[in-house]
From TrEMBL:
<feature type="binding site">
    <location>
        <position position="702"/>
    </location>
    <ligand>
        <name>Zn(2+)</name>
    </ligand>
</feature>
<feature type="binding site">
    <location>
        <position position="636"/>
    </location>
    <ligand>
        <name>L-methionine</name>
    </ligand>
</feature>
<keyword id="KW-0489">Methyltransferase</keyword>
<feature type="domain" description="Cobalamin-independent methionine synthase MetE N-terminal">
    <location>
        <begin position="33"/>
        <end position="344"/>
    </location>
</feature>
<feature type="binding site">
    <location>
        <position position="521"/>
    </location>
    <ligand>
        <name>L-methionine</name>
    </ligand>
</feature>
<dbReference type="GO" id="GO:0003871">
    <property type="term" value="F:5-methyltetrahydropteroyltriglutamate-homocysteine S-methyltransferase activity"/>
</dbReference>
<dbReference type="InterPro" id="IPR013215">
    <property type="entry name" value="Cbl-indep_Met_Synth_N"/>
</dbReference>
<comment type="similarity">
    <text>Belongs to the vitamin-B12 independent methionine synthase family.</text>
</comment>
<protein>
    <recommendedName>
        <fullName>5-methyltetrahydropteroyltriglutamate--homocysteine S-methyltransferase</fullName>
        <ecNumber>2.1.1.14</ecNumber>
    </recommendedName>
</protein>
<dbReference type="GO" id="GO:0032259">
    <property type="term" value="P:methylation"/>
</dbReference>
<keyword id="KW-0862">Zinc</keyword>
<feature type="binding site">
    <location>
        <position position="48"/>
    </location>
    <ligand>
        <name>5-methyltetrahydropteroyltri-L-glutamate</name>
    </ligand>
</feature>
<comment type="function">
    <text>Catalyzes the transfer of a methyl group from 5-methyltetrahydrofolate to homocysteine resulting in methionine formation.</text>
</comment>
<feature type="binding site">
    <location>
        <begin position="468"/>
        <end position="470"/>
    </location>
    <ligand>
        <name>L-methionine</name>
    </ligand>
</feature>
<feature type="active site" description="Proton donor">
    <location>
        <position position="731"/>
    </location>
</feature>
<dbReference type="InterPro" id="IPR038071">
    <property type="entry name" value="UROD/MetE-like_sf"/>
</dbReference>
<keyword id="KW-0808">Transferase</keyword>
Length: 792
C-alpha cells in the first residue's frame, strides 16, 4: 500500500532535481556582468568632508572610518541593486589606491617613519606631506603623477633596491569580509604586480641601472599572502588590474607576467586580468598562455582588438570580459551596438565564457544623474553616470541572455534622439575652423626678437618672481559665489565682492614684493568650468563631482555642440587688477587642450576639431587682453601630456593638433606681449620637442614635488626660452624655508641659464590658506633676491 506513495515522492524529487539542475545549468550558460570599480567620493561628497574634517582636527580617526564604512556600504548596495554579478571591493581609498598598495605592503620611506606618526597620519603624510613646527614634524609629500591618460592623480612612493615588502594591512581581505557581512559577495580588486611596480617611483638616489620591476621576486610572496587569504575567506574570483598592458613596453614583459601568474594562480581565487585604457596589442601572445580565469578588454576605446583576441583564446580555457560600457565618459551607451559586439564573442566562445563589463573603473565618472535638477529632460536622456552605467551593464547582460528590459527599449529611443541632435551644427564655427591658415599658427617674430621687446615692455628684474595664477579660495569667496548663484546677491553686489578680493590679492603682492602680478582668480569656480560656462556648446552638472586626487574633486563640463565665445571672459577682471598697480599684470587662461581633456568631450566629432574650436575662442580672448593693456598672458596646458595616446604609433597626429591648438590660441598678439604656459604633474620627457614647439616665451613647470627630476630633461634637450621650474610644492600644507628655496634655485641654476630663470611655485595656490601662502611667498621673494646677487 505504501509503494505508490514512495514512488510518488521518488518521482517528485527526481523531477525537482532535474528542474534545479536545468536552472543551474542554464545559469552557467548565461552571460554575466561586472563593474571594475566605482566612485569613492560618496553621495554629497561625504568622503571629502570627513577627510578634511579629520585633517582640520575636528574629528577622530574612528569617526572618519565610520563615514568611510558607510560610503563603502552605499557603493556596494548601489551596484548590487543594479543587478550586476561581479561587484568590486578593495578599491575604495581615502586618498589614492596606488598609495594604498604601497602603504599596505609596508613600503614607507624612512622620512615618514622618523616622524613617529600614527598609521593613518603616516599614510596621509605620504600623500600630502605634513608640517607641525610645535611638534618638530616636517616632511614633504611623495611624488604625484597622472594615471595613464586620465586626470586622476596617483601617489608614487619611492622604491629602491633595498625596498622590502611585508603585509602591513590586508585592506582587500578586510573589505571582502565587510561586504560579506552585509550579504554582498564581491570580487576583490588589486593592482597587478607588474602594473604596481611600473607605476611607483624609482628613488632618486637609486643606482642608474635600477628599475622597480626588479623587485618582482620580493613582491610576489606578499601578493600570494593576500590572495591566499581571500581564497580561504571564500572569495571565488579576484580582479588584478594590469592597465600597463595598454602601453608598448608591456609587450616585453612576457617573462614577468609568466613568472607572476604561474606563482599566484595555485593559491588565488579565479583571476581576471583587466587591461583598461587601451589595447593589449602583441601582449596577447603571452597572455593567452597564462593560468588565469579571464582577460578583460577595453572595447570602448579599442573595439577593433576583439577579433584578434578571440582568435588567440578560443582554444584556451580563458574567458573574456568585454569592457563595453565606458568608464571614461558620461554618454549613454548604445546598447544595441554593444550587444552586437558581444554577440561576436558569444558566437566564438559561448555565452558561459563571456562577461560584459565597464571598460575601466567608474571612478572617472560622477555618481548619478538622479540628483541633477537643472539639466533638461533632453540633456538627461543623453547621459549615464556610474549608477546608470551599472544598470546598463546589467541590462546588456540580460539582453544577451534573451531578457531585454524596459531600460534597453528606452535606450534605443534615447540614442536615436541624441544622434538627431548631433546633426545640428554652427556653420560659422565650422567655417572658421576650416579657414585656419599656417600664418595663424606662428608669432610675428622669433623668440630672441620677442624677448627684447618684452624686456622693454615689462621691465622685470633678473630671476623675476610670479605665481601660477590662483590665490586661496576662501570660505568668503565660496559663500559669495553660492549666494550669487541662488539669487541672494545681485550681479553688482557680486562684482563688488570680487573686486574687493582682487584688491586684496594686488595689495598682498605689493606687500610681498612679487614682480609679475596675477589678479588671483577669485571669480573662478574651476579653471575649466569657469571658461565652459562662458562659451557656447557646454552643459554643466550641479553635483557631477569626479575625484582628481585626495579630497580634490572637480565637476567636468560636458561638450554637447560647437564651441564659440560670445563675449570676453576674463578681460574685465584682469583690466581691473591692472588698474590697481603699476606692476605688470599677467592675464590667466586655460588652454584649449586642457579645457578639452578636463571636460567630457563630444563623441560624434574628433577631439582635433573640438580643440581648434576652443583655440579660436581663446585666440580672441588673448587679443582682447592685450588690447586692454595686459602685458603678459598665461595659457595653461597642464593636460597636454595627459592627453597623449598610450601607444607611440598614435602620438604624431595628436601632438600635431595639440601644438597647433596652443599656437593658434596665442599667436594673434604683437611681439611685446609675453606668452606664458604652465605644466604640472606631466612627465613630459618623451614629448619635450613638442613642448619646445609651443614656442611660449615662458613656461613654468611642476618641479619640486617631483624632486627636480624634470630638470634632467633640460640637460638632455636644452631650452632657449624662459622657464620657471617650481621651487616649492603647493599641494602640501607645509611652508618651505627660505634656505630650501635657495637650494632649489641653486640646483636649477646648474642646469638652466640664470638669465632665463623665473621663480615661481609648482602650481596655483587655490587650495592653500592665506597664512601659509604669505609665509611661503615671502621666503620665495627673499630667495629670488639672494639669487640676483649670487648670479649677478
Amino acid at each position: 500500500m505504501r509503494r505508490p506513495f514512495s514512488l510518488f515522492f521518488f518521482t517528485f524529487f527526481l523531477l525537482l532535481s532535474i528542474f534545479i539542475y536545468n536552472i543551474n545549468h542554464h545559469k552557467s550558460k548565461m552571460v554575466k556582468s561586472a563593474v571594475l570599480g566605482y566612485p569613492r567620493i560618496g553621495v554629497g561628497r561625504a568622503t571629502k568632508k570627513a577627510i578634511e574634517s579629520y585633517w582640520a582636527g575636528n574629528s577622530t580617526a574612528e569617526e572618519l572610518e565610520s563615514v568611510a564604512k558607510a560610503v563603502r556600504k552605499e557603493r556596494w548596495e548601489s551596484i548590487k541593486n543594479a543587478g550586476v554579478d561581479f561587484i568590486p571591493s578593495g578599491e575604495f581609498t581615502l586618498y589614492d589606491h596606488l598609495l594604498d598598495h604601497s602603504y599596505n605592503f609596508g613600503v614607507i620611506p624612512q622620512r615618514y617613519v622618523e616622524q613617529k606618526l600614527s598609521g593613518l597620519d603616516t599614510y596621509f603624510a605620504m600623500g600630502r606631506g605634513k608640517q607641525d613646527r610645535a611638534k618638530g614634524i616636517d616632511v614633504v609629500a611623495s611624488e604625484m603623477g597622472k594615471f595613464f591618460d586620465s586626470n586622476y592623480h596617483i601617489v608614487k612612493v619611492d622604491h629602491s633596491p633595498d625596498t622590502e615588502f611585508k603585509l602591513l594591512n590586508n585592506q582587500w581581505l578586510n573589505e571582502y569580509k565587510e561586504a560579506k557581512a552585509l550579504g554582498i559577495e564581491t570580487r576583490p580588486v588589486l593592482f597587478g604586480p607588474i602594473t604596481y611596480l611600473s607605476l611607483v617611483r624609482k628613488a632618486r638616489d637609486a643606482p642608474a641601472d635600477f628599475e622597480p620591476i626588479q623587485l618582482l621576486d620580493k613582491l610576489i610572496p606578499v601578493y600570494k599572502e593576500v590572495l591566499a587569504s581571500l581564497k580561504e575567506a571564500g572569495a571565488e574570483y579576484v580582479q588584478l588590474d594590469e592597465p600597463i598592458l595598454s602601453l608598448d613596453k608591456a609587450e616585453s614583459f612576457g617573462a614577468e607576467f609568466k613568472k607572476v601568474y604561474e606563482a599566484l594562480a595555485p593559491v588565488a581565487p579565479k583571476i581576471t586580468i583587466t587591461s583598461a585604457y587601451g589595447r593589449v596589442g602583441k601582449s596577447i601572445d603571452y597572455l593567452k598562455e597564462l593560468p588565469i580565469h579571464a582577460l578583460h578588454l577595453d572595447l570602448d576605446r579599442e573595439p577593433k582588438q576583439l577579433d584578434s583576441v578571440l582568435e588567440a583564446i578560443k582554444d584556451t580555457k580563458i574567458d573574456i570580459e568585454l569592457g563595453l560600457i565606458s568608464g571614461r565618459n558620461i554618454w549613454k551607451n548604445d546598447l544595441n551596438a554593444s550587444k552586437a559586439l558581444a554577440q561576436k564573442a558569444i558566437d566564438v566562445l559561448g555565452a558561459d565564457r563571456v562577461v560584459v563589463s565597464t571598460s575601466s573603473s567608474l571612478l572617472h565618472t560622477p555618481i548619478s544623474i538622479k540628483v541633477e535638477k537643472k539639466l533638461t529632460e533632453q540633456q538627461l536622456s543623453w547621459l549615464s553616470f556610474a549608477e546608470e552605467k551599472c544598470e546598463e551593464v546589467a541590462a546588456l547582460a540580460h539582453a544577451l541572455n534573451g531578457q531585454e528590459t524596459a531600460l534597453f527599449e528606452q535606450n534605443t529611443k534615447d540614442i536615436a534622439a541624441r544622434r538627431e541632435f548631433e546633426r545640428t551644427s554652427d556653420s560659422a564655427v565650422r567655417d572658421r575652423v576650416a579657414g585656419i591658415t599656417e600664418e595663424m599658427l606662428s608669432r610675428k617674430a622669433p623668440f630672441p626678437e620677442r624677448r627684447a621687446a618684452q624686456k622693454k615692455h615689462l621691465n622685470l628684474p633678473k630671476f623675476p618672481t610670479t605665481t601660477i595664477g590662483s590665490f586661496p579660495q576662501t570660505k568668503e569667496i565660496r559663500q559669495a559665489r553660492a549666494k550669487f548663484g541662488k539669487g541672494e546677491l545681485t550681479a553688482e553686489q557680486y562684482e563688488k565682492a570680487m573686486e574687493a578680493e582682487i584688491q586684496h590679492a594686488v595689495d598682498f603682492q605689493e606687500k610681498t614684493g612679487l614682480d609679475l602680478f596675477v589678479h588671483g582668480e577669485p571669480e573662478r569656480n574651476d579653471m575649466v568650468q569657469y571658461f565652459g560656462e562662458q562659451l557656447t556648446g557646454f552643459i554643466f552638472t550641479q553635483l557631477g563631482w569626479v575625484q582628481s586626487y585626495g579630497s580634490r574633486y572637480v565637476r567636468p563640463p560636458i561638450v554637447v555642440s560647437d564651441v564659440s565665445r560670445p563675449a570676453p571672459m576674463t578681460v574685465r577682471w584682469s583690466a581691473y587688477a591692472q588698474s590697481l598697480t603699476k606692476k605688470p599684470m599677467k592675464g590667466m587662461l586655460t588652454g584649449p587642450v586642457t579645457i578639452l581633456n578636463w571636460s567630457f568631450p563630444r563623441a560624434d566629432v574628433s577631439k582635433e576639431v573640438q580643440s581648434k574650436q576652443l583655440a579660436l575662442a581663446l585666440r580672441d580672448e588673448v587679443v582682447d587682453l592685450a588690447n586692454a593693456g595686459i602685458k603678459a598672458i598665461q595659457v595653461d596646458e597642464p593636460a597636454i601630456r595627459e592627453g597623449l595616446p598610450l601607444r607611440k604609433s598614435d602620438w604624431d597626429s595628436y601632438l600635431k593638433w595639440a601644438v597647433d591648438s596652443f599656437r593658434l590660441s596665442t599667436s594673434g598678439v604683437e611681439n611685446d606681449i609675453q606668452v606664458h604656459s604652465h605644466f604640472c604633474y606631466s612627465d613630459f620627457g618623451d614629448i619635450f620637442p613638442s613642448i619646445q614647439a609651443l614656442d611660449a616665451d615662458v613656461i613654468s613647470i611642476e618641479a619640486s614635488k617631483a624632486d627636480l627630476k624634470l630638470l634632467d630633461v633640460f640637460k638632455s634637450y636644452g631650452y632657449s626660452n624662459e622657464i620657471g621650474p617650481g621651487v616649492y610644492d603647493i599641494h602640501s600644507p607645509r611652508v618651505p624655508s627660505e634656505q630650501e628655496i635657495k637650494d632649489r634655485i641653486a640646483a636649477m641654476a646648474k642646469v638652466l641659464p640664470a638669465d632665463l630663470m623665473v621663480v615661481n611655485p609648482d602650481c596655483g595656490l587655490k587650495t592653500r590658506g592665506w597664512k601659509e601662502t604669505e609665509e611661503s611667498l615671502t621666503n620665495l621673494v627673499a630667495a629670488a633676491r639672494w639669487a640676483r646677487e649670487q648670479y649677478a
